[in-house]
Amino acid sequence: MKIQNWILLVLASIHPAFALWPMPRTLETGTSLVKLSPAFKIDVGIAKAPQDLLDAVSRTTTRLHTDKLQRLVVGRGSSDSAALARAPSLTKLSLSLTSAGAKNVKSIMAETTKDITERSESYSLTLPANGAQASIIANSTLGLLRGLTTFEQLFYADAAGTTTYAFQAPITITHDSPAFPYRGFMLDTARNFFPVADIKRTLDAMSLVKMSQFHWHVVDSQSFPLTIPGFPELSQKGAYSSSEIYSSADVQDIVSYAGVRGIDVLVEVDTPGHTAVISTSHPEHIACAQATPWENFANEPPAGQLRLASPATANFTAGLLTSIARTLPSMLFSTGGDELNVNCYTQDAQTQADLKASGKTLEQALDAFTQTTHGALRALGKTPVVWEEMALDHNVTLSNNTVIMVWISSQNAAAVAAKGLRLVHSPSDFFYLDCGAGEWIGSDATANSWCDPFKSWQKAYTFDPLASLTASQTSLVLGGQQLLWTEQSGPENMDSIIWPRAAASAEVFWTGATLPDGSPLNGTTALPRLHDVRFRMVQRGVNAIALQPKWCALRDGQCNL
Amino acid sequence: MKIQNWILLVLASIHPAFALWPMPRTLETGTSLVKLSPAFKIDVGIAKAPQDLLDAVSRTTTRLHTDKLQRLVVGRGSSDSAALARAPSLTKLSLSLTSAGAKNVKSIMAETTKDITERSESYSLTLPANGAQASIIANSTLGLLRGLTTFEQLFYADAAGTTTYAFQAPITITHDSPAFPYRGFMLDTARNFFPVADIKRTLDAMSLVKMSQFHWHVVDSQSFPLTIPGFPELSQKGAYSSSEIYSSADVQDIVSYAGVRGIDVLVEVDTPGHTAVISTSHPEHIACAQATPWENFANEPPAGQLRLASPATANFTAGLLTSIARTLPSMLFSTGGDELNVNCYTQDAQTQADLKASGKTLEQALDAFTQTTHGALRALGKTPVVWEEMALDHNVTLSNNTVIMVWISSQNAAAVAAKGLRLVHSPSDFFYLDCGAGEWIGSDATANSWCDPFKSWQKAYTFDPLASLTASQTSLVLGGQQLLWTEQSGPENMDSIIWPRAAASAEVFWTGATLPDGSPLNGTTALPRLHDVRFRMVQRGVNAIALQPKWCALRDGQCNL
């Protein structure tokens, strides 16, 4: 144990690449300092560069000077001052596209919102030790964005905060690209509401760790904060208040803000369960609306589910889903599908009458309902996304490009893959950020949260995306995400409950199973880099939580047991 | 179960005193609305009223208009609009002292910093239903402050945010006073640093729930952010950085800010353990400084303890303790005393030589060390406070007014009381706010926090201060506190990890075992009031965490299982 730690310590001092998160696929570093010249410029060598690339360049240029993150070592920014005086100055970072990439230049937003399997995020990066120009080359503007994000993480401020420098030049990343295209974070904005500014700050942090997908669980039984064109009554009557609604402009603002930062937005309108709130405007479509005791009709209060056996309700649902989906650039759209409560329908006279009239079983009706909603989405060119129950617990016909969110247990991924369906790892036993904060239903002093214990970053970081899958099934894994259900969260604690924990999966799904030196990912070498990205987040106004006492953050390895 | 809930629901609708936290000892309410007149004034009927009382009145007056908290019911501020139009207007709240209290008027600060057993916090309050003047009467300015705090919690804003009103007039509190004088919160500012502004915001929230004591665990092995007159080197070399130091002016600022808000500040300089950082300026006084592996020498990294067997070290320690203690108005001062590691001294050649020279055992030397430090504090008129090990695990002679912090287990209070010593409940099994967030030492993916699980508000709220004590021992209980150790916390998450959870003990130790109607405290009726105080905190800029979905917060009882 101690010998192992000693070896890791030596390795860390040989490759003290503290800055980078997620770790690139290849990395060579030196030990020279290079400081940014006052004349430093980022040169975009692309004819008719898209505006969102120019904006990204501008943000990087600004952050190189405003991050003012001093190295996490004893002495902080002072520790390099002697060497810094002699360091060469970097005047230029050039961005360019490969000849293939230059043939069809698209905006970052356009690249980001391509089909999840067709996005190009790869790039190469060099930062010479002698002050000669640095470069990032990619096949797409999205790849250039990822390279810029890496570039920012190479730089630190000196103690005075006046000089920005890298300390590991020459730095060469021959090739970086994600192991999995879906690297996400899910936010529930229905249990409690999150203003647009809070979501944007979250997107900033996501982009910093190269996440590609924001899964927006926007509505649920408790509130309907989403404005849907043609269905204004849903949010007017279902939102917590008139100030807790995402207008159509807000939605576009969030989608655009995300897209130019390399993040596609997967909106979920959960159906047919988790829809009690729709009864406030459309009681005719909801079975067991606010029925009590709620625990007989739903996993959470209030009870209420769409009358899936009613053709009118299926049409209504398809209408609202397509009405919002068609305004969104993403190819992905989630219809939810979790936690369907059968008793709700058993007790609902109308559903029973509808089933009798159609001669269908509940499962057959669910299949028909799903064909209606998914068919409508597919007609828009969208790929449906569903929670795992729709694949594993129900007799629903799913098109083979449907994406399944595996959440109940990480163990269930294999069953989804066995059906030949694509999946996104969202397991509650690794990635649920809300676990471990006590029970929120009532006042039982002995109750813990249903998914106790707390899912630490260490736990999330050990997740193996390919566990229990055969070689031929690995292509079914699109990636994964950490998730925040917000029964006990709001804008007040979102930064600290999400960050830096959610960065754990960002690295697992970008870097893959091995570090550039071929060694497996491991928490001990990850910790100093995670400290680094956490401190950088704090510098950027994201209230990421401290992982350890600062004493430990400045002394890699010295607090390990 | 369901019948019980039904009864509680009926009780809640009879006494919907959602606003008050902690619940007063007596309370009678009506159902009438009274709004604040535009001419509303608080009249201080006290000759030569102390400035800090006038300032408190000013803060209350401001907050009555700036809180803008709408009632937590469906419809929020709109729900009372019809009745509000007809409501009488309140033009005056009068504050007065009893004739006994008027004889010797002291500032709130002076009352707050009296000996913990001699503070007078009681008050009475009336708010008539007809718009006639409201009144608060107390024996001291501190009692008036408590009454003002209650008064603020009676008022809500209408939907427009232009009218402030109470909805339960007439309101009569014949007598309110705390069951226990020590109602505290402990913050560790050594593992991670907290700027003064963050501490002040915490004090604001503490005052809102009538807490009386801020236990400031200001220094520890990891950093020494405290400026001690005559010992500037301790913070100059031991703080995390020059910007992470509490100057003497900062300390006075915090102490004064707390004092005028009814909160006495108990500063702790932990000794003889938890002192590694002193080795940065005084290596001669520290045994096993940063010895490795740290787990052989300390409960946490880095290792290091004062050389308690050295007379020079004892004198040095007494000197620094008295140097800071004499600048503080509080009668209480803590010398710590937790988690002493014997092996550290066994391995320390100097300590062994010192023991040999004096002919003392380590325990005898600890006793002598404690006599030196406590004697020096008593010479200043201070009452020493220590962690429970000093009373239960060591052969240390403690003066019988010493205050013992019981932390290892709530079960240990009985043993402390059996020794006739006074105690403050600080049990890790109920009141440690840091539990349940995973392990912070290293990268073990299977490890949970040492005091798992998370201590929910529901758990804290069931704490019985007098459990296992005899009737004659009850007077030894000064009160209790929730505590935040900050290995995994900083300014980023402090509000959400502290609030509203720490309000649980504030009510347990103010209200005592029973509510005004004689029924025992219970979480089910507490929840809507805790929502209320949490929402009020958020309105005041304290990022208190959501306890439930807002849907539940607006519908008392409907989310209970």
Automatic annotation (TrEMBL), chains A, B:
Domain of life (superkingdom): Eukaryota
Biological processes annotated in GO: carbohydrate metabolic process; glycosaminoglycan metabolic process
Signal peptide: 1-19
Catalytic activity: Hydrolysis of terminal non-reducing N-acetyl-D-hexosamine residues in N-acetyl-beta-D-hexosaminides
Active site: 339 (proton donor)
InterPro entries per record: Beta_hexosaminidase_sua/sub, GH, Glyco_hydro_20_cat, Hex-like_dom2, HEX_eukaryotic_N
Domain Beta-hexosaminidase eukaryotic type N-terminal: 20-154
Record bears the keyword Nucleotide-binding: no
Keywords, in A-Z order: Glycoprotein, Glycosidase, Hydrolase, Signal
Gene Ontology, cellular component aspect: membrane
Sequence ranges assigned to domain Glycoside hydrolase family 20 catalytic in this UniProt record: 180-512
Class of enzymatic activity (EC top level): hydrolase
Pfam family, one: Glyco_hydro_20
Any GO molecular function: beta-N-acetylhexosaminidase activity
UniProt keyword Glycosyltransferase, yes or no: no
Record-listed E.C. numbers: 3.2.1.52
Protein family according to the UniProt entry: Belongs to the glycosyl hydrolase 20 family.
Protein name as it appears in the record: Beta-hexosaminidase
Species for this entry: Pholiota conissans
